[in-house]
Amino acid sequence: MTCDRLVCANCAGPVSEGRCPVCRAHRERVHRESPLGGLSPATLFTLVLALLAVAFLAQRVAVA
Ligand SMILES: [Zn+2]
């Protein structure tokens, strides 16, 4: 997801140019959310596997 093609409702300019405060606020919000939204399915799958492994190990430690 990029904001290159978005048109600002306030200044009618491209949001990516950041002409007005509304543009800049929207651009910052999009860029701040992008790290999570830009994760690939493979990366998410790896993260889930890692969490499961940690949970499994923690459970074994707790039982033993
Ligand atoms: Zn604007």
Provide an overview of this structure.
The structure is a single chain. The protein is mainly alpha-helical and 64 residues long. It folds into 2 domains: 1-33, no CATH class; 39-64. The protein is built from 2 helices and no strands. The protein has helices spanning 21-37, 41-63. It is rod-shaped, with a radius of gyration of 20 Å. Residues 8, 10-11, 13, 19-20, 22-23 line the site of zinc ion. Keywords: Membrane, Transmembrane, Transmembrane helix. The chain crosses the membrane at residues 39-58.
Outline of the structure:
This protein has 64 residues and is mainly alpha-helical. It has helices spanning 21-37, 41-63. The structure holds zinc ion.
Topology:
Layout: H1 21-37, H2 41-63
Cα distance, first to last residue? 47 Å
Number of DSSP helices? 2
Number of strands: 0
Summed over residues and divided by their number, the pLDDT gives a mean of: 84
For this entry, give a set of tags:
binds zinc ion, rod-shaped, 64 residues, mainly alpha, 0% strand, 2 domains
